Amino acid sequence: MNILQAGAVPEDQLNVLVIGNDADVLEASLEGVDRVELNFPKFTDGRAYSQAYLLRRRRKFEGDIRATGDVLIDQLVQMQRTGFSSAVLKEGKDPAEAERQFARFAEYYQADVQVQQPHFARS
Predict the structure, then answer these.
(1) What percent of the chain clears pLDDT 90, i.e. is strictly above it?
(2) 38: closest CA among 1, 70, 6?
(3) Using CA atoms, how far apart are residues 3 and 1, in angstroms rounded to an integer?
(4) CB within 8 A of 108, min separation 6: which ones?
(5) pTM for the complete prediction?
(6) Residue 17 and residue 38: Cα distance in Å, rounded?
(7) What are the structural domains, with CATH classification, of the chain?
(8) What is the pLDDT of residues 98-123, one digit of tens each?
(9) Which Pfam families does the annotation name (predicted)?
(10) Using CB atoms within 10 A of its CB, is residue 38 exposed (0-12), middle (13-18) or buried (19+)?
(11) Residues 87, 90, 91, 95: what is their CA dihedral angle, to the nearest 10 degrees?
């Protein structure tokens, strides 16, 4: 997962689609979209997890899905497992601390967006 700090996010020439938490991602037009930004207005609002999962699994979106808003370091692993490929941390948060989150667990029992078979079904 690509971890960025707030304020240090470069503006580029990508076609970016910002989707609100109340929008149905199954109906969004993804033609020509390079990045989808999903917002966490507060860390207890998990609708963006479902949106990311639907974009990856049902819509087969292969571009960047970026988490913005109230992004907490301890939620980054779950964000990646549900389909996010990048996240913008709040100002003052250390990206190195965020990267350590991914080293804590080698694998998971459950299937997710990246590994589509549960542990018991893998050879």
Answers:
(1) 56
(2) 70
(3) 6
(4) 81, 115, 119
(5) 0.85
(6) 9
(7) 2-121 (3.20.20)
(8) 888 888 877 777 888 888 888 888 87
(9) DUF934 (PF06073)
(10) buried
(11) -50
